[in-house]
Amino acid sequence: MTKLRIVFMGTPEFAVGILDTIVKNNYEVVGVITAADKPAGRGQKLKYSAVKEYALAQNLPLLQPTNLKDDSFLEELKSLNANLQIVVAFRMLPKVVWEMPELGTFNLHASLLPNYRGAAPINWAIINGETKTGVTTFFIDDKIDTGAMILSSEIEIEPNENAGELHDRLMNLGCQTVIDTLQKLEDENVVTTIQEEPADIKTAYKLNKENCKIDWNDTGANIINLIRGLSPYPAAWCFLKDEADEMSVKIYDAQFSMESHDYKIGKVISTKKELKITISDGFIIVNNLQLPGKKRMKTAELLNGVRFSEQAKVH
User: Fold this and answer.
1) Percent of the chain having pLDDT more than 90?
2) pLDDT, tens digit, for every residue of 3-39?
3) Of 181, 206, 259, 269, which cross-links 119 as Cys (Cβ 3.0–4.6 Å)?
4) Which residues span the domain enclosing 225?
């Protein structure tokens, strides 16, 4: 049986759940690598990553390199004398880093590889209307998310689930999958599978302003999937124009009602309690949204203080 000495690399909340499970299962974590502190918010105060907060609370040795090829960082990493590195939601590693430990470096990715390689696998699985997804552990190589797979675990995506809810379930699934992977490495019982390259492979592109914008000419099902897939972060958005005012609006929760109507696409219809938007195959009923400079709120709450005119429309 191989005694594992682990360096863990990660940054967001998703990675914390995995690191916590490794620690609670009594594996030896000899070091944690996370992103450098970044200024955030109006005061531009330095903000710690979620993984740094956890590492400090657990008194784990912590490194925050800005350059992963820097000689002093590489010396510090080497001095930790790890025989395994685990990467969860970090960044692309140079070869000199992922090759360093004797047992290699494995990554936990929140998709069923080879599909949804890339930055936002949880979001794109929902946006594309998938009914199942999962997590995969694989050994890192010199490309992004292409290495030899160790284990994968699958779950169904619930019909109304959003990205935040799926994130939490995949984190729990990832915890168990990482522990199962560690047990295989301890027992020297790892069998890997080379990733295939299907012609219709789906990619988890980085999210940006452009691909988060709602296209009101799309079908109701696709619009709802986009809203679910981007909620609660970074949120699907659109422009709302009402008379002389035009504003950018974020929509966090909505439902689709399939109906025939004679309205133009994008018309905003509001009552005292309901806000709906006309689309080609019915209406999108907005349940939860955020106007500029206001907090996120339920539609009924917003409509207590805001009225839209007959001319209001989205685009």
Assistant:
1) 90
2) 999 999 999 999 999 999 999 999 999 999 999 988 7
3) 206
4) 220-314
Of 300, 275, 297, 271, nearest in space to 286 by CA: 275
Angle at 12 between CA 10 and CA 15, to 5 degrees: 55
105-140, pLDDT tens digit by residue?
A: 999 999 999 999 999 999 999 999 999 999 999 999
| Helix 13-24 and helix 50-57, axial crossing angle in degrees, nearest 10 | 30
How many CA atoms are closer than 13 Å to the CA of 281, on its beta-carbon side? 10
Whether 32 and 156 map to the same domain: the answer is yes
pLDDT averaged over every residue in the chain: 95
Return phi, psi of residue 250, to 5°.
-100, 135
Domain stop point among 186, 208, 234: 186
- In this prediction the pTM is 0.94
* Residue 204 belongs to a domain: no
Task: State how beta strands 84-88 and 105-109 pair.
Answer: parallel
Q: Is residue 267 part of a domain?
A: yes
Contact 103, 1 (CB under 8 A): no
**In sequence order, what DSSP letters do the residues of 199-249 get, joined into one string?**
TT--EEPPP-TTTTB--TTS-HHHHHHHHHHTTTTT-EEEEEEETTEEEEE
Distance CA(259)–CA(240), nearest Å, equals: 22
CB 43 within 8 A of CB 33: no
With H, G, I as helix, E, B as strand and everything else as coil, classify residue 18.
helix
CA 226 to chain centre: 14
